[in-house]
């Protein structure tokens, strides 16, 4: 495998002087923001990407207050040039060692009432944007050897929850993006994995369900509580670290045993 620094015209020993960069899309959200903050501990810079620049800047500022370095970038995953835009900003910041895609579109609507535009958007911002970003980075001369790409997946990939057709289908496609890229890029030692959260307490979930409903639902989960964004971020940080340098094509589930507790047979009538 050729050295990206050499391809960029830099001497091999310049690696120590090039900032180690982590890229997080959706960094203005609950899970994305937590991932960005967690990766700041092991990287010189974190490129915080969100379509809302103010939210990206908030996350970058939090990283700065904690002693790290965050760079805010505004980019919309629905834009066909999203991957190239983010990759260019990331390479300008240093040598990219990891990237995390934490963007999805979720609409809770019965299938008969669901518009095709909503389904298209789910595919555009999740599997297509993730592939575009990872491909742009993989073809860049500024990618570090042994780089790690992680997608934030969902239990919806394998569980066909009602009223979530677009989200379900998009995550099914995202899973195949992860598996295929891990397969094809293994010889280049580019690792591609997914972290699969269960029901996590995020601001977005509060908007969808309300705090009271989430509190009741949390008590009914196997662990008796909702998951926390920090727990998801810890899994991402592991997959992005040298400790996982032989892990690729894996789906690390962080759900407090929720997925294995969903299988139940109908009880029938007495």
Give a description of the structure:
The protein has helices at residues 4-7, 30-39, 53-65, 82-93, 116-138, 165-184, 203-209, 211-220, 229-239; strands at residues 20-25, 45-50, 70-74, 95-101, 143-152, 191-197, 251-254. With 270 residues, it is α/β, with parallel strands linked by helices. The chain has one domain (19-254): NAD(P)-binding Rossmann-like Domain (Rossmann fold, 3-Layer(aba) Sandwich). The protein has a 7-stranded parallel β-sheet, with helices on both faces. Strand 5, helix 6 and strand 6 (191-197) form a beta-alpha-beta unit. Helix 5 runs parallel beside helix 6 (165-184). The chain is globular, with a radius of gyration of 19 Å. Mean pLDDT is 93; it is low at 1-14.
Topology summary:
Blueprint: H1 4-7, E1 20-25, H2 30-39, E2 45-50, H3 53-65, E3 70-74, H4 82-93, E4 95-101, H5 116-138, E5 143-152, H6 165-184, E6 191-197, H7 203-209, H8 211-220, H9 229-239, E7 251-254
Parallel strand pairs: 1-2, 1-4, 2-3, 4-5, 5-6, 6-7
Helix pairs in contact: 2-9, 4-5, 5-6, 7-8
The overall pLDDT, averaged over residues, is: 93
In quaternary terms, these chains amount to single chain
- Please state the overall shape, judged from the principal axes of the Cα atoms: globular
- How large is the count of helical segments? 9
* Class derived from helix and strand content: alpha/beta
In the CATH hierarchy, what is the architecture at level 2? 3-Layer(aba) Sandwich
CATH topology, anyone?
Answer: Rossmann fold
Portion in strands: 15-25%
**CATH superfamily (homologous) name:** NAD(P)-binding Rossmann-like Domain
The domain tally reads: 1
Radius of gyration: 19 Å
Strands across the major sheet, in which order? 3-2-1-4-5-6-7
Cα end-to-end separation: 66 Å
| Main pleated-sheet profile | 7 strands, parallel
